[in-house]
Amino acid sequence: MIGIISDAHGNLKGFLRGIEILKSLGAKSFYFLGDALGYIPNTDLIDELILAKNKMKFVRGNHEDIILSGKTNSRKESVYKHKIIRNALNQKQLSFINSWPNHINEVIQGKKILFVHGGPLDFTYQYVFPDSELNDNNLNFDLIFMGHTHLPFLREKDNKIYVNVGSCGLPRDSGEFGSCALLDPSNFRISILRFSIKEFNNEIAENLNKEIDESVIKLFSRKCPKIIGDFIT
0.90 cut: is pTM over it? Predict the structure, then answer.
């Protein structure tokens, strides 16, 4: 069983809850699809990922890419917190993040699988939403796992399966339910899993209220009438 998780954005406990659930369902290996950082100015998750590197593969997200390049957007800095995060990272953490590729190609049980943060046309920055056009007929993959939008979905088009695993730390449908995905390579069953991160959101809002932009705090309490995935308690 393979666990896929993405977009923690400094929510360490949300990430750990997702990993805990994936392990409880049989996951032995993992893929992290980027954006460990951004929005929530906390770098502790990088140390956790370093500890997990023997069982986990990593893809660079757009926030890591911007932080490493130093090309921060001054208009969005109050929300992204890239400069604060960059200054908080030590050399070991920076070197580790810099080692992440922008995509991973795998062949599992004869299936060609692409793991990216963004999408198949731009591995780091493409947004693929639940209602996006999927006209990538020339792609030589059977299965594509993505993050970036914080909106999970599973769709099939032209004999390809597209999976957005959503966000374990800052979901954009319902703010209290993180998400991740589980792949069973024996039959290629894919499950999108949802789990409560409400207690962690409340803790972050209480302890880091002055360090997080108000728009991010509002995401914690966002509601959505239709939530994709299987709820795990």
Answer: yes
